[in-house]
Amino acid sequence: HGSSEMKGMAIGDVGDSSSASGLEELARKLDACDPLRCFRDKFKLPDREYVLRTLSTTRTEDGKIDPKQEIIYLCSNSLGLQPKRTREDLLEVLDDWGGLGVMSHTTGKRPTEGSDEEPRRLLAEYIVGAMPDEVAVMESLTANIHTLLAAFYRPTAEKNCVLIEKSAFPSDYYAVESQITHNGYNPRDNLIEIELRPNDYLSTEQINEVIRQNAHRLAMIWLPGIHYFTGQLLDIKTITEAGHRLAKCPVGWDLAHAVGNVPLKLHDWGVDCAVWCTYKYLCGSPGGVAGIFVHSRHHAEEGSYVPVRGAPGQVVRGPRLTGWWGHRMSTRFQMSNCMEAERGAAAFQRSCPSMLLNSALRSSLLIFKEVGGMSPIREKSIKLTGFLKTLLTQGEFALPKNVLKIITPLDKAQRGAQLSLQFSVDVDKVYSQLTKNGVICDVRHPNCIRMAPAPLYTSFEDVLKAVKAIQEAVLNLLKQE
User: Fold this and answer.
1) What is the pLDDT of residue 367?
2) Fold of 2-70+375-480
3) Is 35 exposed, middle or buried (0-12, 13-18, 19+ CB in 10 A)?
4) What integer pLDDT is reported at residue 396 of this predicted model?
5) For 264-315, how does the pLDDT look when each residue is reduced to its tens digit (9 = 90+)?
6) The Aminotransferase class V domain covers which part of the protein (predicted)?
């Protein structure tokens, strides 16, 4: 019922609600009929007094938070908030370890053995759109990029280049650069970067054209599902199809800013491989365990020996970098030193998993399951970020375009939760003032602040208060100039 009422409200155009009182009333109404509003109580919102005490010892007077202000958290693109159940779940793991010692590997409330099974299934079904054996929960983002590039980047004398976007996130750039070097090639010649056109985005047509022009020399395509700086959502399905059709090479994706943010259908879209972290929108804990997707067509036969070198151009099957946790569980502890591949993407695992990290991820994923997956989250996200965009560009709290520019695509189909705001005034001073007023976001230099309302715990009133704080901060700076 709440969802249908929200659909009837004009979020894209504040219209008669453009006055301060009208906007406040609109925000309250939107929150009142929000079907996800009850989930806010399942997360620990940053405590104003705790933040104040902490920052007062580490920041200058200008950076201290006004104790009268509540905290408005708009930084899930960097780190998601802690689910309340995480602490209890982690204590159960610690109790098992403390009370059982080594026996906690196989017994107790939360045995370490198989601790990745439930998070893997939840990710596959509710988050990334995959079959359960196409997902593995393992290691960290950059380590997993290397793992997949080692398997899927198979250069030949003719096809030896990797395509990425210009100004890629360092995790991706350094991994791709070093894999090219490791294979005996020179990144200056074999790393192709898609140039971002001035005052534009990475259009699907532009990407496909670059693929077409370089098809004869591409061995791998590696792109972000959502660009970390601009917040642009790429057309994963269409670009993957173009890579296969034109370049006949694997297409891999870094989904760090996409998982838990937008719906994904990795299996149906034919994606070859993908990686993601879990500490942003998925709220899986700081530095939490990461994940990989490997399409079923690239799986080694369960129990078969890996790695298999495979001729360049052949379909990739199984990992190239192996470890004992990729050996199938039924014979793993026989210590035969004769690899028998685990089923599916799990064959790419190398090390014993962290029970603590797996437990923290499970705690959050159970909330996503309770919500019903990504569709209701995306539905609210479109409205929530649309409300943020509208308030920044219309009505009483809007700022002139020469002062603030939204560099994220305005088309809701080309963005997730994040808006990237470009300022003509000193961005560090804007950020400092926002922090002082209790708005938590992040800065990306030279002049950008990123804000990402999270549908599970951000309210429409939060968004309105944040926009008020932006206007106040910018106007104060303009007065000083």
Assistant:
1) 99
2) Aspartate Aminotransferase, domain 1 (3.90.1150)
3) middle
4) 93
5) 999 999 999 999 999 999 999 999 999 999 999 999 999 999 998 766 667 8
6) 72-290
The ranges of the chain annotated as CATH 3.90.1150.10 are 2-70+375-480
* pTM of the full structure: 0.94
> CATH assignment of 95-368, given 3.30.70.660, 3.90.1300.10, 3.40.640.10, 3.40.50.300?
3.40.640.10
> Among positive and negative, which fits the CA dihedral 167, 172, 173, 174?
positive
* Averaged pLDDT score across all residues of the chain: 93
| Dmax (CA) of the chain | 73
Q: How many residues does the chain have?
A: 481
pLDDT for the residue numbered 60: 47
For residues 199 and 279, the model is more confident at 279
Other beta carbons within 10 Å of 205: 11
Q: At what angle do helices 374-393 and 20-32 cross, to 10 degrees?
A: 180
pLDDT of residue 138: 98
Averaged over 185-201, what is the pLDDT?
A: 90
Compute the C-alpha angle 461/388/281, nearest 5°.
Answer: 85
Residues of the chain within CATH 3.40.640.10 domain(s) are 95-368
Write out the two tokens for 214.
């370089």
Specify whether the CB–CB gap between 273 and 295 falls below 8 A: yes
- pLDDT band at 11; cut points 50, 70, 90: low
Whether 398 contacts 387, CB under 8 Å: no
Determine the average pLDDT of the residues in 15-30. Answer: 84
Confidence of residue 481 (pLDDT cuts 50, 70, 90): confident
Taking the C-alpha atoms of residue 427 and residue 265, their distance in angstroms, rounded to an integer, is: 37
**CB under 8 A, 24+ apart: contacts of 373-377:** 373/125, 373/126, 373/127, 373/263, 374/126, 374/127, 374/260, 374/262, 374/263, 374/264, 375/263, 376/3, 376/35, 376/36, 377/36, 377/260, 377/455, 377/456
Q: What's the CA gap between 371 and 39, in Å, rounded?
A: 8
User: Three-class SS of residue 236?
Assistant: helix
Task: For residue 259, give both structure tokens.
Answer: 């998982």
pLDDT of residue 314: 74
Indicate if the alpha-carbon torsion angle 361, 388, 230, 423 is positive or negative: negative
Structure token digits, residue 44: 């620990």
